[in-house]
């Protein structure tokens, strides 16, 4: 359970940023955005349970277990408070972390994600994909996500991004895919966590995000006391990798708001 450190930072540089990846990906989805975060503050990323190297002794599938994992990684790194940014599944984990450990979360970036639970049909689909990944012992059931995670503009103009996503997906394991899908299927609505959250929030959404579209983002903005909405042009669900400079700027602004509030 380690944090990947993209940038070390020094005392006095401001609160560190901790990035939590989406599904079926790992910390590498943040590589380019992390390097583009303005300033000198520390930038770290976690790999959640179910990613390569994090498959041993998996607990029962639960987003709360992933949040506990992040809390432990932060404790091991000596980080007592951070700006926490989660993309999609990472956003579900960020909200669970804010619920279980509010003291750790100075600010929240919710990137192409939602605070609500899945409707029944989506839950059933997740459980079907989990079973299929195990039965076929392959990542085949999530391969099509290399296309659906990115927006139309990226598919047409920057096919290398889709190719990179496809390669990241191939690196995942059937057991990890099954674990994460079951964890996401079981998660509750956490809009109440946003309502109770006192720190600054930035909600980021690609304008071509078909998986967690703008109305899901607006729902979160409306729930939080101090939230800004950043709509990323020409980006889909993986705005953080499609338009990393825009997402990095939003993270930098949020971290400055968090520094000012702390
Ligand atoms: C993700 O990008 O993390 C997934 O789309 C999350 C999900 O399936 O809800």
TrEMBL record:
Record Pfam families: Abhydrolase_6 (PF12697)
UniProt keyword Hydrolase, yes or no: yes
Domain AB hydrolase-1 stretches: 17-250
Keywords: Hydrolase
InterPro entries: AB_hydrolase_1, AB_hydrolase_fold, AB_hydrolase_sf
Top-rank taxon, per record: Bacteria
Hydrolase found in the keyword field: yes
GO MF term set: hydrolase activity
PANTHER family reported in the protein's UniProt record: AB HYDROLASE-1 DOMAIN-CONTAINING PROTEIN, MONOACYLGLYCEROL LIPASE
The name this protein goes by in its record: Alpha/beta fold hydrolase
